[in-house]
Write a structure and sequence with these properties.
Layout (H helix, E strand, L loop, with lengths): L1 E7 L2 E7 L7 E5 L2 H7 L5 E4 L12 H9 L21 H12 L5 H5 L1 H13 L7 E3 L2 H9 L10 H14 L3 H9 L7 H19 L4 E8 L5 E5 L1
Parallel strand pairs: 1-4, 4-5
Antiparallel strand pairs: 1-2, 2-3, 6-7
């Protein structure tokens, strides 16, 4: 079993595929713990969320990712420093970030802080999960998958069509099938589903040992978590 996971308004949009199966299934998890509980025997869970947080400064994987996905560099938000992980407001997080690293925190990064904290808690609480749960970024995956950077934003008609075409080539009919199974569940968008498939594509490469790692020699954070992206 491999699982691709992307954050959405409702929680986490998951696309899972059994070994030897050509038919992925999609579902919404309210928490990351629910993802782990539903797929306890997964060989790989690829999730679009920062794993491994710096004490200060930037992560090498974020810098490398922004470089290879140009002109979509802004799609990779800077990972927050660990000192703001449990901040209760943007003002608190921004002030703390400035005090520790000399730079403020983007509102995009703050918006996903609770999800970062969920995954961080799971991986610190169970070191064995570090062999299963990996950080990915859909734009990096699509860059490697398509052989060139995505020139159009994912929510534009052109951008969605290009990304959906890659998914359709690998899993014919799966986007429509998965979208249909999620139709009665709110809190997600079409691009969330497409991004989850990008994570699933990378999960397959991780299991096969063919995934690309950014940077090639990752650092680890103060908790021993690797600061890397796979694609």
């Amino acid at each position: 079993m491999i699982v691709g996971v992307d954050g959405c308004r409702a929680g986490w949009l998951c696309v899972a595929q059994e070994a030897g199966s050509t038919a992925p299934i999609a579902w919404i998890a309210l928490t990351f713990l629910a993802v782990l509980e539903r797929h306890p025997l997964a060989s790989c869970i690829a999730v679009d969320i920062p794993i491994g947080l710096p004490g200060t400064g930037s992560r090498g994987c974020d810098v490398a990712a922004r470089e290879i996905i140009k002109p979509r560099s802004s799609s990779v938000f800077p990972a927050p420093i660990r000192g703001v992980l449990h901040a209760r407001s943007y003002d608190e997080a921004n002030a703390t970030h400035k005090a520790i690293s000399g730079k403020g925190m983007t509102k995009q990064s703050f918006a996903i802080l609770p999800k970062i904290a969920e995954v961080d808690a799971a991986l610190r609480g169970d070191p064995e999960l570090r062999k299963v749960v990996f950080e990915v970024h859909p734009e990096v995956s699509f860059r490697v998958w398509g052989g060139a950077p995505m020139l159009f934003p994912k929510r534009s008609a052109e951008g969605e069509a290009i990304r959906a075409k890659l998914v359709e080539e690998q899993w014919p009919g799966a986007l429509d099938t998965c979208a249909g199974s999620l139709r009665r569940t709110g809190g997600w968008e079409e691009d969330d589903l497409i991004d989850a498939f990008a994570a699933l594509w990378t999960a397959r490469r991780i299991v096969a040992g063919t995934a690309r790692t950014l940077p090639e020699t990752p650092e680890v954070d103060g908790e021993g978590l690797p600061m890397r992206m796979l694609a």
